Protein backbone atom coordinates (compact mmCIF):
# COMPACT_ATOMS: atom_id res chain seq x y z
CA UNK A 1 0.00 0.00 0.00
CA UNK A 2 1.24 3.49 -0.80
CA UNK A 3 0.87 4.70 2.77
CA UNK A 4 3.10 1.91 3.95
CA UNK A 5 5.68 2.54 1.21
CA UNK A 6 5.94 6.22 2.00
CA UNK A 7 6.31 5.59 5.70
CA UNK A 8 3.03 7.11 6.85
CA UNK A 9 3.27 7.39 10.62
CA UNK A 10 -0.31 6.23 10.99
CA UNK A 11 0.30 2.86 9.32
CA UNK A 12 2.66 0.30 10.86
CA UNK A 13 4.97 -1.33 8.30
CA UNK A 14 3.84 -4.77 7.13
CA UNK A 15 7.25 -6.22 8.03
CA UNK A 16 6.97 -5.29 11.71
CA UNK A 17 8.42 -8.41 13.41
CA UNK A 18 6.25 -7.86 16.50
CA UNK A 19 2.91 -7.82 14.71
CA UNK A 20 2.02 -11.43 15.58
CA UNK A 21 2.74 -10.78 19.25
CA UNK A 22 0.50 -7.75 18.86
CA UNK A 23 -2.21 -10.10 17.58
CA UNK A 24 -1.84 -12.15 20.78
CA UNK A 25 -2.49 -9.02 22.85
CA UNK A 26 -5.52 -7.99 20.78
CA UNK A 27 -6.91 -11.53 20.77
CA UNK A 28 -6.45 -11.80 24.54
CA UNK A 29 -8.49 -8.65 25.07
CA UNK A 30 -11.20 -9.80 22.65
CA UNK A 31 -11.40 -13.19 24.35
CA UNK A 32 -11.85 -11.51 27.73
CA UNK A 33 -14.75 -9.40 26.44
CA UNK A 34 -16.49 -12.32 24.67
CA UNK A 35 -16.22 -14.92 27.40
CA UNK A 36 -17.45 -12.48 30.05
CA UNK A 37 -20.93 -12.78 28.56
CA UNK A 38 -21.00 -16.48 29.50
CA UNK A 39 -18.41 -17.08 32.24
CA UNK A 40 -20.79 -15.62 34.84
CA UNK A 41 -23.68 -17.82 33.64
CA UNK A 42 -22.29 -20.91 35.38
CA UNK A 43 -21.52 -18.90 38.52
CA UNK A 44 -24.99 -17.34 38.67
CA UNK A 45 -26.70 -19.95 40.91
CA UNK A 46 -23.86 -19.63 43.46
CA UNK A 47 -23.86 -15.82 43.28
CA UNK A 48 -27.65 -15.74 43.66
CA UNK A 49 -27.48 -17.79 46.86
CA UNK A 50 -24.55 -15.80 48.24
CA UNK A 51 -26.03 -12.33 47.61
CA UNK A 52 -29.70 -13.19 48.13
CA UNK A 53 -30.95 -12.25 44.67
CA UNK A 54 -34.56 -12.93 43.74
CA UNK A 55 -35.40 -15.06 40.70
CA UNK A 56 -36.81 -11.97 38.99
CA UNK A 57 -33.65 -9.89 39.54
CA UNK A 58 -30.97 -12.49 38.84
CA UNK A 59 -31.14 -11.78 35.09
CA UNK A 60 -29.57 -8.33 35.70
CA UNK A 61 -26.19 -10.01 36.20
CA UNK A 62 -26.38 -10.85 32.48
CA UNK A 63 -28.44 -7.98 31.08
CA UNK A 64 -26.53 -5.20 32.89
CA UNK A 65 -23.44 -6.29 30.94
CA UNK A 66 -25.05 -6.94 27.55
CA UNK A 67 -27.21 -3.82 27.71
CA UNK A 68 -24.33 -1.44 28.49
CA UNK A 69 -22.11 -3.21 25.95
CA UNK A 70 -24.66 -3.15 23.13
CA UNK A 71 -26.04 0.29 23.92
CA UNK A 72 -22.64 2.00 23.91
CA UNK A 73 -20.82 0.01 21.23
CA UNK A 74 -21.43 2.56 18.46
CA UNK A 75 -20.25 5.38 20.75
CA UNK A 76 -17.17 3.34 21.66
CA UNK A 77 -16.14 3.28 18.01
CA UNK A 78 -16.46 7.06 17.79
CA UNK A 79 -14.42 7.52 20.98
CA UNK A 80 -11.65 5.38 19.47
CA UNK A 81 -11.66 7.68 16.43
CA UNK A 82 -11.48 10.77 18.65
CA UNK A 83 -8.95 9.72 21.30
CA UNK A 84 -6.84 7.25 19.32
CA UNK A 85 -7.11 3.46 19.06
CA UNK A 86 -4.18 2.41 21.25
CA UNK A 87 -5.04 4.86 24.01
CA UNK A 88 -8.70 3.80 23.95
CA UNK A 89 -7.64 0.14 23.98
CA UNK A 90 -5.51 0.63 27.11
CA UNK A 91 -8.20 2.72 28.86
CA UNK A 92 -10.76 0.01 28.06
CA UNK A 93 -8.52 -2.71 29.50
CA UNK A 94 -7.81 -0.81 32.73
CA UNK A 95 -11.47 0.11 33.20
CA UNK A 96 -12.61 -3.46 32.49
CA UNK A 97 -10.14 -4.83 35.04
CA UNK A 98 -11.29 -2.31 37.67
CA UNK A 99 -14.97 -3.11 37.08
CA UNK A 100 -14.20 -6.86 37.27
CA UNK A 101 -12.42 -6.41 40.61
CA UNK A 102 -15.38 -4.39 41.91
CA UNK A 103 -17.79 -7.13 40.85
CA UNK A 104 -15.69 -9.85 42.44
CA UNK A 105 -15.74 -7.94 45.74
CA UNK A 106 -19.51 -7.27 45.56
CA UNK A 107 -21.25 -7.30 48.92
CA UNK A 108 -24.78 -6.94 47.53
CA UNK A 109 -26.70 -7.74 44.38
CA UNK A 110 -26.91 -4.03 43.50
CA UNK A 111 -23.14 -3.70 43.71
CA UNK A 112 -22.71 -6.70 41.39
CA UNK A 113 -25.26 -5.33 38.91
CA UNK A 114 -23.46 -1.98 38.86
CA UNK A 115 -20.07 -3.61 38.35
CA UNK A 116 -21.40 -5.70 35.47
CA UNK A 117 -22.84 -2.58 33.82
CA UNK A 118 -19.46 -0.87 34.23
CA UNK A 119 -17.80 -3.88 32.61
CA UNK A 120 -20.17 -3.45 29.67
CA UNK A 121 -19.28 0.25 29.37
CA UNK A 122 -15.56 -0.48 29.11
CA UNK A 123 -16.15 -3.49 26.85
CA UNK A 124 -17.95 -1.12 24.46
CA UNK A 125 -14.83 1.07 24.43
CA UNK A 126 -12.42 -1.86 24.17
CA UNK A 127 -14.00 -3.96 21.41
CA UNK A 128 -14.06 -1.36 18.56
CA UNK A 129 -10.50 -0.21 19.28
CA UNK A 130 -9.30 -3.83 19.25
CA UNK A 131 -10.86 -4.38 15.82
CA UNK A 132 -9.37 -1.11 14.52
CA UNK A 133 -5.89 -2.00 15.80
CA UNK A 134 -6.13 -5.36 14.08
CA UNK A 135 -6.90 -3.80 10.70
CA UNK A 136 -4.01 -1.32 10.99
CA UNK A 137 -1.49 -3.83 12.38
CA UNK A 138 -1.98 -6.23 9.45
CA UNK A 139 -1.87 -4.45 6.11
CA UNK A 140 -0.96 -7.41 3.88
CA UNK A 141 -4.23 -9.00 2.64
CA UNK A 142 -3.03 -12.59 3.18
CA UNK A 143 -1.75 -11.89 6.69
CA UNK A 144 -4.89 -9.94 7.49
CA UNK A 145 -6.98 -12.96 6.52
CA UNK A 146 -5.02 -15.16 8.93
CA UNK A 147 -5.25 -12.55 11.69
CA UNK A 148 -9.01 -12.22 11.29
CA UNK A 149 -9.29 -16.00 11.27
CA UNK A 150 -7.69 -16.11 14.72
CA UNK A 151 -9.84 -13.20 15.89
CA UNK A 152 -13.03 -14.85 14.59
CA UNK A 153 -12.14 -18.23 16.09
CA UNK A 154 -11.75 -16.66 19.51
CA UNK A 155 -15.03 -14.78 19.13
CA UNK A 156 -16.76 -18.02 18.15
CA UNK A 157 -15.22 -20.19 20.87
CA UNK A 158 -15.37 -17.57 23.61
CA UNK A 159 -18.76 -18.76 24.84
CA UNK A 160 -17.52 -22.35 25.24
CA UNK A 161 -14.36 -21.23 27.00
CA UNK A 162 -16.50 -19.05 29.27
CA UNK A 163 -18.74 -21.96 30.26
CA UNK A 164 -15.84 -24.30 31.05
CA UNK A 165 -13.63 -21.74 32.81
CA UNK A 166 -16.64 -20.46 34.75
CA UNK A 167 -17.40 -23.98 35.91
CA UNK A 168 -13.83 -24.70 37.02
CA UNK A 169 -13.43 -21.40 38.89
CA UNK A 170 -16.83 -21.67 40.59
CA UNK A 171 -16.32 -25.26 41.71
CA UNK A 172 -12.69 -25.16 42.82
CA UNK A 173 -12.33 -21.53 43.97
CA UNK A 174 -15.40 -19.30 44.25
CA UNK A 175 -17.89 -17.64 41.90
CA UNK A 176 -16.12 -14.32 42.53
CA UNK A 177 -13.08 -15.59 40.62
CA UNK A 178 -15.17 -15.58 37.46
CA UNK A 179 -14.74 -11.81 37.72
CA UNK A 180 -11.33 -11.59 39.39
CA UNK A 181 -9.79 -13.68 36.59
CA UNK A 182 -10.09 -10.68 34.24
CA UNK A 183 -7.63 -8.64 36.30
CA UNK A 184 -4.41 -10.58 35.53
CA UNK A 185 -5.49 -11.03 31.90
CA UNK A 186 -6.04 -7.28 31.54
CA UNK A 187 -2.70 -6.46 33.23
CA UNK A 188 -0.82 -8.69 30.78
CA UNK A 189 -2.73 -7.16 27.85
CA UNK A 190 -2.00 -3.58 29.02
CA UNK A 191 1.75 -4.20 29.21
CA UNK A 192 1.64 -5.98 25.88
CA UNK A 193 -0.30 -3.12 24.26
CA UNK A 194 2.12 -0.47 25.56
CA UNK A 195 5.16 -2.33 24.21
CA UNK A 196 3.89 -4.07 21.08
CA UNK A 197 1.08 -2.04 19.50
CA UNK A 198 1.55 1.05 17.36
CA UNK A 199 -0.24 4.22 18.32
CA UNK A 200 -3.00 5.29 15.95
CA UNK A 201 -3.62 9.00 16.61
CA UNK A 202 -7.16 10.24 17.06
CA UNK A 203 -8.94 12.88 15.00
CA UNK A 204 -9.84 16.06 16.87
CA UNK A 205 -12.66 16.82 14.42
CA UNK A 206 -14.66 13.68 15.36
CA UNK A 207 -17.96 14.57 17.02
CA UNK A 208 -19.83 12.43 19.54
CA UNK A 209 -23.60 12.06 19.32
CA UNK A 210 -24.31 12.30 23.06
CA UNK A 211 -28.09 12.96 22.65
CA UNK A 212 -28.28 9.84 20.48
CA UNK A 213 -26.55 7.78 23.18
CA UNK A 214 -28.91 9.07 25.90
CA UNK A 215 -32.03 8.43 23.81
CA UNK A 216 -30.95 5.01 22.49
CA UNK A 217 -29.64 3.65 25.80
CA UNK A 218 -32.52 5.16 27.74
CA UNK A 219 -35.03 3.46 25.46
CA UNK A 220 -33.32 0.07 25.71
CA UNK A 221 -32.98 0.27 29.50
CA UNK A 222 -36.68 1.20 29.84
CA UNK A 223 -37.66 -1.74 27.62
CA UNK A 224 -35.57 -4.32 29.50
CA UNK A 225 -36.54 -2.89 32.90
CA UNK A 226 -40.20 -3.12 31.86
CA UNK A 227 -39.80 -6.83 31.08
CA UNK A 228 -38.10 -7.48 34.42
CA UNK A 229 -40.75 -5.59 36.43
CA UNK A 230 -43.60 -7.47 34.73
CA UNK A 231 -42.91 -10.53 36.89
CA UNK A 232 -43.43 -8.99 40.36
CA UNK A 233 -46.05 -6.40 39.30
CA UNK A 234 -47.92 -7.95 36.37
CA UNK A 235 -48.01 -6.94 32.69
CA UNK A 236 -50.86 -4.43 33.20
CA UNK A 237 -49.26 -2.64 36.17
CA UNK A 238 -48.99 1.16 35.65
CA UNK A 239 -45.20 1.08 36.28
CA UNK A 240 -44.68 -1.62 33.64
CA UNK A 241 -46.89 0.18 31.11
CA UNK A 242 -45.09 3.46 31.84
CA UNK A 243 -41.70 1.81 31.24
CA UNK A 244 -42.84 0.34 27.93
CA UNK A 245 -44.36 3.69 26.95
CA UNK A 246 -41.13 5.49 27.81
CA UNK A 247 -39.18 2.95 25.74
CA UNK A 248 -41.37 3.59 22.68
CA UNK A 249 -41.08 7.38 23.04
CA UNK A 250 -37.30 7.35 23.62
CA UNK A 251 -36.55 4.94 20.77
CA UNK A 252 -38.86 6.81 18.37
CA UNK A 253 -37.15 10.08 19.34
CA UNK A 254 -33.77 8.39 18.80
CA UNK A 255 -34.76 7.49 15.23
CA UNK A 256 -36.00 11.06 14.63
CA UNK A 257 -32.80 12.54 16.05
CA UNK A 258 -30.61 10.33 13.84
CA UNK A 259 -32.14 12.06 10.79
CA UNK A 260 -31.08 15.46 12.14
CA UNK A 261 -27.88 14.90 14.12
CA UNK A 262 -24.76 16.50 12.55
CA UNK A 263 -22.87 13.22 13.03
CA UNK A 264 -25.47 10.52 13.82
CA UNK A 265 -24.58 7.63 16.08
CA UNK A 266 -26.34 5.26 13.66
CA UNK A 267 -26.66 6.66 10.11
CA UNK A 268 -30.12 5.48 9.10
CA UNK A 269 -29.11 4.68 5.53
CA UNK A 270 -27.14 1.75 7.01
CA UNK A 271 -30.35 0.07 8.19
CA UNK A 272 -32.65 1.23 5.39
CA UNK A 273 -31.20 -1.31 2.95
CA UNK A 274 -33.56 -4.28 3.01
CA UNK A 275 -31.02 -7.11 3.27
CA UNK A 276 -28.99 -5.38 5.96
CA UNK A 277 -32.08 -4.58 8.04
CA UNK A 278 -33.22 -8.19 7.69
CA UNK A 279 -29.84 -9.43 8.92
CA UNK A 280 -29.86 -7.11 11.94
CA UNK A 281 -33.38 -8.18 12.90
CA UNK A 282 -32.66 -11.88 12.33
CA UNK A 283 -29.57 -11.67 14.53
CA UNK A 284 -31.46 -9.93 17.33
CA UNK A 285 -34.31 -12.46 17.30
CA UNK A 286 -31.92 -15.43 17.13
CA UNK A 287 -29.94 -14.24 20.15
CA UNK A 288 -33.12 -13.56 22.16
CA UNK A 289 -33.72 -17.31 22.17
CA UNK A 290 -30.09 -18.32 22.65
CA UNK A 291 -29.37 -16.19 25.74
CA UNK A 292 -32.60 -17.34 27.35
CA UNK A 293 -31.47 -20.92 26.75
CA UNK A 294 -28.12 -20.24 28.46
CA UNK A 295 -29.87 -18.95 31.58
CA UNK A 296 -32.45 -21.75 31.89
CA UNK A 297 -30.12 -24.64 31.09
CA UNK A 298 -27.58 -23.41 33.65
CA UNK A 299 -30.20 -23.50 36.40
CA UNK A 300 -31.81 -26.70 35.11
CA UNK A 301 -28.53 -28.62 35.09
CA UNK A 302 -27.26 -27.31 38.45
CA UNK A 303 -30.45 -26.90 40.50
CA UNK A 304 -32.72 -29.62 39.08
CA UNK A 305 -30.27 -32.30 37.88
CA UNK A 306 -27.67 -31.43 40.59
CA UNK A 307 -24.74 -31.09 38.17
CA UNK A 308 -21.53 -29.57 39.49
CA UNK A 309 -20.46 -26.22 37.92
CA UNK A 310 -17.70 -27.99 35.94
CA UNK A 311 -20.07 -30.66 34.63
CA UNK A 312 -22.55 -27.91 33.71
CA UNK A 313 -19.90 -26.06 31.72
CA UNK A 314 -18.92 -29.23 29.86
CA UNK A 315 -22.59 -29.99 29.16
CA UNK A 316 -22.75 -26.89 26.94
CA UNK A 317 -19.93 -28.08 24.66
CA UNK A 318 -22.25 -29.86 22.16
CA UNK A 319 -23.96 -26.52 21.57
CA UNK A 320 -20.65 -24.81 20.81
CA UNK A 321 -19.51 -27.73 18.64
CA UNK A 322 -22.72 -27.42 16.67
CA UNK A 323 -22.14 -23.69 16.12
CA UNK A 324 -18.56 -24.29 14.91
CA UNK A 325 -19.56 -27.13 12.55
CA UNK A 326 -22.57 -25.22 11.24
CA UNK A 327 -20.57 -22.08 10.50
CA UNK A 328 -17.21 -23.47 9.29
CA UNK A 329 -18.19 -26.76 7.62
CA UNK A 330 -21.67 -26.00 6.26
CA UNK A 331 -22.24 -22.23 5.89
CA UNK A 332 -18.68 -21.46 4.79
CA UNK A 333 -18.90 -24.09 2.03
CA UNK A 334 -22.42 -23.27 0.80
CA UNK A 335 -22.53 -19.48 1.10
CA UNK A 336 -20.68 -19.00 -2.20
CA UNK A 337 -23.28 -21.16 -3.99
CA UNK A 338 -26.66 -20.40 -2.43
CA UNK A 339 -28.58 -17.29 -1.42
CA UNK A 340 -27.99 -16.29 2.23
CA UNK A 341 -31.61 -16.88 3.24
CA UNK A 342 -31.32 -20.50 2.03
CA UNK A 343 -29.00 -20.98 5.00
CA UNK A 344 -30.59 -18.57 7.48
CA UNK A 345 -34.17 -19.88 7.20
CA UNK A 346 -33.29 -23.59 7.66
CA UNK A 347 -30.88 -22.56 10.40
CA UNK A 348 -33.56 -20.82 12.43
CA UNK A 349 -36.04 -23.65 11.81
CA UNK A 350 -33.41 -26.14 13.03
CA UNK A 351 -32.71 -24.05 16.14
CA UNK A 352 -36.44 -23.79 16.82
CA UNK A 353 -36.73 -27.57 16.51
CA UNK A 354 -34.00 -27.94 19.11
CA UNK A 355 -35.96 -25.64 21.41
CA UNK A 356 -39.14 -27.68 20.91
CA UNK A 357 -37.28 -30.83 21.95
CA UNK A 358 -36.21 -29.04 25.15
CA UNK A 359 -39.83 -28.29 26.04
CA UNK A 360 -40.14 -32.01 26.93
CA UNK A 361 -37.65 -31.86 29.81
CA UNK A 362 -38.83 -32.99 33.23
CA UNK A 363 -37.39 -33.16 36.74
CA UNK A 364 -35.92 -36.58 35.84
CA UNK A 365 -34.76 -36.08 32.23
CA UNK A 366 -31.61 -37.77 30.92
CA UNK A 367 -28.96 -35.46 29.48
CA UNK A 368 -27.78 -37.76 26.69
CA UNK A 369 -31.22 -38.54 25.27
CA UNK A 370 -33.29 -35.40 25.98
CA UNK A 371 -30.90 -32.46 26.38
CA UNK A 372 -27.81 -33.09 24.24
CA UNK A 373 -29.67 -33.71 20.93
CA UNK A 374 -31.51 -30.42 21.39
CA UNK A 375 -28.26 -28.54 22.07
CA UNK A 376 -26.66 -30.02 18.94
CA UNK A 377 -29.63 -28.99 16.75
CA UNK A 378 -29.61 -25.54 18.34
CA UNK A 379 -25.88 -25.13 17.68
CA UNK A 380 -26.10 -26.27 14.07
CA UNK A 381 -28.98 -23.88 13.46
CA UNK A 382 -27.12 -20.94 14.97
CA UNK A 383 -23.98 -21.81 12.99
CA UNK A 384 -25.97 -21.92 9.76
CA UNK A 385 -27.41 -18.48 10.55
CA UNK A 386 -24.56 -16.45 12.05
CA UNK A 387 -22.09 -16.60 9.16
CA UNK A 388 -24.49 -15.50 6.37
CA UNK A 389 -25.82 -12.76 8.68
CA UNK A 390 -22.34 -11.27 9.21
CA UNK A 391 -21.34 -11.75 5.58
CA UNK A 392 -24.53 -10.26 4.10
CA UNK A 393 -24.79 -7.37 6.57
CA UNK A 394 -21.25 -6.17 5.84
CA UNK A 395 -21.17 -6.86 2.08
CA UNK A 396 -21.12 -3.94 -0.31
CA UNK A 397 -20.99 -1.16 2.28
CA UNK A 398 -19.09 2.05 1.63
CA UNK A 399 -15.66 2.15 3.33
CA UNK A 400 -16.75 4.98 5.62
CA UNK A 401 -19.74 2.89 6.79
CA UNK A 402 -18.00 -0.47 7.29
CA UNK A 403 -17.11 0.24 10.91
CA UNK A 404 -20.57 1.37 11.96
CA UNK A 405 -22.16 -1.54 10.07
CA UNK A 406 -20.02 -4.12 11.87
CA UNK A 407 -20.76 -2.40 15.19
CA UNK A 408 -24.50 -2.47 14.42
CA UNK A 409 -24.43 -6.25 13.88
CA UNK A 410 -22.74 -6.66 17.26
CA UNK A 411 -25.15 -4.19 18.84
CA UNK A 412 -28.17 -6.18 17.60
CA UNK A 413 -26.53 -9.27 19.12
CA UNK A 414 -26.04 -7.68 22.56
CA UNK A 415 -29.46 -6.00 22.57
CA UNK A 416 -31.10 -9.30 21.63
CA UNK A 417 -29.29 -10.96 24.52
CA UNK A 418 -30.51 -8.28 26.93
CA UNK A 419 -34.14 -8.45 25.81
CA UNK A 420 -34.15 -12.26 25.63
CA UNK A 421 -32.71 -12.75 29.11
CA UNK A 422 -35.13 -10.26 30.69
CA UNK A 423 -38.24 -11.32 28.76
CA UNK A 424 -37.79 -15.09 29.05
CA UNK A 425 -36.72 -14.91 32.70
CA UNK A 426 -39.96 -13.04 33.44
CA UNK A 427 -42.03 -15.59 31.51
CA UNK A 428 -40.33 -18.48 33.33
CA UNK A 429 -40.64 -17.08 36.86
CA UNK A 430 -44.27 -16.01 36.32
CA UNK A 431 -45.23 -19.45 34.97
CA UNK A 432 -43.39 -21.20 37.83
CA UNK A 433 -45.13 -19.11 40.47
CA UNK A 434 -48.56 -19.82 38.96
CA UNK A 435 -47.86 -23.56 38.67
CA UNK A 436 -46.62 -23.90 42.25
CA UNK A 437 -49.56 -21.91 43.68
CA UNK A 438 -52.11 -24.10 41.86
CA UNK A 439 -50.47 -27.47 42.61
CA UNK A 440 -49.21 -27.05 46.16
CA UNK A 441 -51.98 -28.73 48.14
CA UNK A 442 -49.94 -31.14 50.28
CA UNK A 443 -47.07 -29.42 52.20
CA UNK A 444 -45.23 -32.73 52.37
CA UNK A 445 -44.79 -32.61 48.59
CA UNK A 446 -43.52 -29.03 48.54
CA UNK A 447 -39.93 -29.81 47.45
CA UNK A 448 -41.04 -31.88 44.45
CA UNK A 449 -43.82 -29.44 43.44
CA UNK A 450 -41.36 -26.52 43.56
CA UNK A 451 -38.94 -28.40 41.29
CA UNK A 452 -41.72 -29.33 38.89
CA UNK A 453 -42.91 -25.73 38.91
CA UNK A 454 -39.44 -24.43 38.07
CA UNK A 455 -39.11 -26.86 35.15
CA UNK A 456 -42.63 -25.97 33.98
CA UNK A 457 -41.61 -22.30 33.92
CA UNK A 458 -38.53 -23.16 31.85
CA UNK A 459 -40.58 -25.14 29.31
CA UNK A 460 -43.11 -22.31 28.88
CA UNK A 461 -40.28 -19.82 28.28
CA UNK A 462 -38.58 -22.23 25.86
CA UNK A 463 -41.83 -22.48 23.86
CA UNK A 464 -41.73 -18.67 23.57
CA UNK A 465 -38.08 -18.84 22.48
CA UNK A 466 -38.98 -21.46 19.84
CA UNK A 467 -41.63 -19.09 18.51
CA UNK A 468 -39.11 -16.23 18.37
CA UNK A 469 -36.76 -18.46 16.38
CA UNK A 470 -39.53 -19.19 13.87
CA UNK A 471 -40.19 -15.45 13.64
CA UNK A 472 -36.48 -14.99 12.85
CA UNK A 473 -36.84 -17.58 10.06
CA UNK A 474 -39.83 -15.65 8.67
CA UNK A 475 -37.95 -12.34 8.80
CA UNK A 476 -34.94 -13.85 7.04
CA UNK A 477 -37.13 -15.44 4.38
CA UNK A 478 -39.08 -12.25 3.61
CA UNK A 479 -36.44 -9.53 4.06
CA UNK A 480 -33.08 -11.04 3.04
CA UNK A 481 -33.44 -11.25 -0.73
CA UNK A 482 -29.72 -11.10 -1.65
CA UNK A 483 -28.63 -13.58 -4.30
CA UNK A 484 -25.71 -16.00 -4.10
CA UNK A 485 -22.43 -14.33 -5.17
CA UNK A 486 -21.58 -15.15 -8.78
CA UNK A 487 -17.85 -14.96 -8.22
CA UNK A 488 -15.56 -15.27 -5.25
CA UNK A 489 -16.19 -16.52 -1.76
CA UNK A 490 -17.39 -15.13 1.53
CA UNK A 491 -13.82 -14.08 2.16
CA UNK A 492 -14.38 -11.36 -0.42
CA UNK A 493 -16.54 -9.57 2.09
CA UNK A 494 -14.78 -6.32 3.02
CA UNK A 495 -12.94 -6.41 6.30
CA UNK A 496 -14.27 -3.71 8.64
CA UNK A 497 -11.96 -0.74 8.59
CA UNK A 498 -11.71 1.89 11.31
CA UNK A 499 -13.67 5.00 10.47
CA UNK A 500 -11.42 7.87 9.49
TrEMBL record:
The transmembrane residues are 20-40, 60-77, 89-111, 117-136, 148-173, 179-198, 210-227, 239-257, 278-301, 313-335, 342-363, 375-398, 419-440, 460-480
Keyword Repeat attributed: no
Name the major location. membrane
Q: Does the keyword field hold Protease?
A: no
The record's InterPro entries line, in alphabetical order, gives: EmrB-like, MFS, MFS_dom, MFS_trans_sf, Sugar_transporter_CS
Q: Which residues form the Major facilitator superfamily (MFS) profile domain?
A: 22-484
Membrane topology label: Multi-pass membrane protein
The alphabetized UniProt keywords are: Antibiotic resistance, Cell membrane, Membrane, Transmembrane, Transmembrane helix, Transport
Highest rank taxon of the organism: Bacteria
Q: Which GO terms describe its cellular component?
A: plasma membrane
Question: What GO annotations for molecular function exist for this entry?
Answer: transmembrane transporter activity
The GO biological-process annotations, alphabetized, read as:
response to antibiotic
Report the subcellular localization: Cell membrane
Pfam assignment, any one: MFS_1
Under the heading NCBIfam families, the entry gives: efflux_EmrB
**What's the protein name?**
MFS transporter
From which organism does this entry originate?
A: Streptomyces tagetis
Amino acid sequence: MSAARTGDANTPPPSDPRRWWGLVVIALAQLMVVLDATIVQIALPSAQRDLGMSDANRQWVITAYTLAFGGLLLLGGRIADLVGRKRTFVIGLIGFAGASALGGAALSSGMLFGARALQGVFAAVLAPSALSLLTTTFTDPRERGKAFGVYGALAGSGSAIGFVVGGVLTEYLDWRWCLYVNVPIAVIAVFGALTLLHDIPGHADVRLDIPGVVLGCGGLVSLVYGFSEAQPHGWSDPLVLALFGAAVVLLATFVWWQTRAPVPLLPLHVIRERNRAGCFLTMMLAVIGMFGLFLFMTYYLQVILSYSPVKTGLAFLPLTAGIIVGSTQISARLLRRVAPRMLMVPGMVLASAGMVILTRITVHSEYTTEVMPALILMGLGMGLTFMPVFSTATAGVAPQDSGVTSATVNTSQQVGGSIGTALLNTVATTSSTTFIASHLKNPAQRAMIVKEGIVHGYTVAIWVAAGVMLLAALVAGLMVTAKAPRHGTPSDTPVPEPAS
